[in-house]
Amino acid sequence: MSKQHNTGFLALVTDAKSRVKEITIDEFQQHQRPSVLIDVREDREWQAGHLPQAMHLGKGIIERDIEAAVQDKQQTLVLYCGGGFRSALAADVLQKMGYTDVLSLAGGYSAWVNAGLPLEKP
């Protein structure tokens, strides 16, 4: 069962997605450039499972902590959340902070799980 989102939230996401490039799981798996995979979900979501090699910087702290975690603003960043909405919002903010190669994983964690791909647990 998919989560029903409020119209105000969806409007923000639609606006952010007009500026953010999304990448599908297939594109991510074929991606040749070195990238940093960032999980922007809440702590409890991260602890339930996450994508292999991911770094956890929740949406609530990413703006505060990203510059310490990733100093190179040209580094490719691939963000994901549960379904691709929060990651688009976070990607939009990181672009405003000067990060030049920020991608949002379309479908997020849910799409990854539905594809039967491997997960890690802390």
From TrEMBL:
PROSITE patterns: RHODANESE_3 (PS50206)
UniProt keyword terms in alphabetical order: Transferase
Transferase as UniProt keyword: yes
InterPro entries attached to this UniProt entry: GlpE_sulfurtransferase (IPR050229), Rhodanese-like_dom (IPR001763), Rhodanese-like_dom_sf (IPR036873)
Keyword Cell membrane recorded: no
Ranges where the Rhodanese domain occurs: 31-121
Molecular function via GO: transferase activity
Pfam entry (one): Rhodanese
PANTHER family found in the cross-reference section: FAD-DEPENDENT OXIDOREDUCTASE, NITRIC OXIDE REDUCTASE FLRD-NAD(+) REDUCTASE
Protein name: Sulfurtransferase
Organism expressing this protein natively: Rheinheimera riviphila
Lineage: Bacteria, Pseudomonadati, Pseudomonadota, Gammaproteobacteria, Chromatiales
